[in-house]
Amino acid sequence: MLRYDVTSNDWVIFSPARAMRPEEFSRHGSRMPPVVPADYRCPFCPGNENLTTPEITAIRDGGPANTPGWKVRVVPNKFPALRIEENHRRQEQGRLFRQMGGCGAHEVIIASPDHNTPPALMPIEQLTLVLRVLRDRFNDLMRDTRFQTIVIFKNYGPTAGTSLAHPHCQLIATPVTPRTVRQKLAISQQYFDQTGDCLYCTLLADELADGKRVLAQNSHFVAILPYASHVPFEIWILPRHRQSSFRWIDPSLLHPLAEILKTVLLKLHVGLGNPDFNLTINTAPRGDEDSESFMWFIEILPRLATPAGFELGSGMSINTMLPEEATNFLRSVDACKIAAAACG
Amino acid sequence: MLRYDVTSNDWVIFSPARAMRPEEFSRHGSRMPPVVPADYRCPFCPGNENLTTPEITAIRDGGPANTPGWKVRVVPNKFPALRIEENHRRQEQGRLFRQMGGCGAHEVIIASPDHNTPPALMPIEQLTLVLRVLRDRFNDLMRDTRFQTIVIFKNYGPTAGTSLAHPHCQLIATPVTPRTVRQKLAISQQYFDQTGDCLYCTLLADELADGKRVLAQNSHFVAILPYASHVPFEIWILPRHRQSSFRWIDPSLLHPLAEILKTVLLKLHVGLGNPDFNLTINTAPRGDEDSESFMWFIEILPRLATPAGFELGSGMSINTMLPEEATNFLRSVDACKIAAAACG
């Protein structure tokens, strides 16, 4: 069976013949090194502030910058993909070769002073602080008009692209709007022009009406496993009240967002045995931040399968698990186990 | 620095600050299990033909089907992503939910009776046979008018999506044209409409004129590391005489194609210590097979880096190695070492 993703115009191949049972996915749990060598000084741990580049901002109870006492700390990435100092001039090198300066920003948000607590087990209050810092950094960086898009992302575990165990996430401000972002905007804009409705609002309403893929909800947010999920256990957290850019989220909504995020991460953590995953925030670029036809949302992509030659060559995904089955499995994840895990 | 990929309209971020030296990439050599357990019966080895589904075709010196004596053997994938028996009807499930039957084909091409020889070390004659079988299967499957695109791909090594050591590649016939294929066609079509030239021919001419990223060439094919490579050591093998679909390749060109493919794979094998990689053939879908504005070509993507949250969230790539440097490194790969590897 194939399913059509109306937000990207991709067909996704669902291949139950290749499927594992949900339980089997948990064998793929994170291979994050659990034991830290005795002589290892984690650059993100309190007391080691001198091992990072000087901090950009931090939430702390008084005390000077770059010393312990912080709850969340933001530093420039030591190996930045893009840098504020670079220019963003386009340069032609012949008919077809075009380059531009590596202008942008690349920051690391150290999400907790506690080295060993994965995000799923963090207190909701700590997650709320992290979301607040992300919102503040987003707004601050958008004052630099050279930046078009802010990409917020978390890599969790080696197969997701990090081997740093200390909880952290990152953001990159890019000097161009990525093509795929532009295409998603064009698709939702066209839907809006045709129907007068936001594509994502309609999708959310239909998912709520169908119900089979709704994992969690509170008064402000809904977590679903989308109809045309590209990977097993893909999860979206959507706001009930549409906004085009994450930068506009009302501060009072950060706590309910942290709450549903924690619920979702905990179900993945317990149900699938601490899997590697990537998390990103889909959000509108400069110029479309007040669009009526787009919605920011959080996307969580567990790294349970390896995209191979077919996916790389065709751009199509093969997903071995229907989102309805994945939802059923995550719904059934034992609340007692979750409570026990949450307590330590 | 960012570079623009004129074939996809993507900007690629080049981030030398994050770079390893070329030599360091070879630490990531394939973790393909080198030793086969004594009690393991490889389903792709001669004598074990009964462990696969019955063969579709084979090249053999006489003898009945599904017995030893073959040189290349094609069997249906045991866990197919798509199947010939399924229908391809679209079905609406509400306003936004649309699905279709999993109609298609999924075949495995067993590339050699020899279990232990990676493709880089295969004789050119054997590679030629494999390419011939791929061309024949492509043409045979396209007689089923439900199939729109044939995706040919090879996964080599665990990080590239396979742990089967026995040399093989695969093809999937899809009942829809993937969106990314459609977009590349639209981009090259627009270039043709504007200029009267094929975008890929122009790109190849410019790469040959510039010369800095040309790795190998013979009278029919050129291997380059493209200007806007998305991953380190990405390699394209392009035909000098443009055709839109691989299915039209003249049989006399299969040997020179195998020859340059072997050169390229051997340089990767020796230079980077047997890295995992994916290989695909970019080719036009049904309806565009005679297009004047598209060109089939082979794309090789070594799996030396892990795409993470930024790439998944934005669709942009971060590449830590300029293709000029990668070309220099591969050019310098010692010819004696290569000869020794080829003999041993």
Distance between the termini of chain A: 42 Å
CATH C-level category of chain A: Alpha Beta
Structural class of chain A: alpha+beta
Give the low-confidence spans of chain A. none
Task: Please report the two chains with the greatest interface, counting residues with C-beta closer than 8 angstroms to the partner's C-beta.
Answer: A-B, 72 and 72 residues
User: Which fold name is given in CATH as the topology of chain A?
Assistant: HIT family, subunit A
β-sheet strand percentage of chain A: 15-25%
Q: Architecture of chain A, CATH level 2?
A: 2-Layer Sandwich
Mean pLDDT score of chain A? 93
Number of strands of chain A: 15
Individual helix count of chain A: 8
- How many whole angstroms does the radius of gyration of chain A measure? 20 Å
Largest sheet of chain A: 10 strands, antiparallel
Spell the H/E element sequence of chain A: EEHEEEEEHEEHHEEEHEEHEHH
Describe the oligomeric state of these chains in a short phrase. Answer: homodimer
> Which strand order do you get reading across the main beta sheet of chain A?
3-4-7-9-8-13-14-12-11-10
Inertia-based shape of chain A:
globular
| Total domain modules of chain A | 1
Task: Please name the fourth-level CATH homologous superfamily of chain A.
Answer: HIT-like
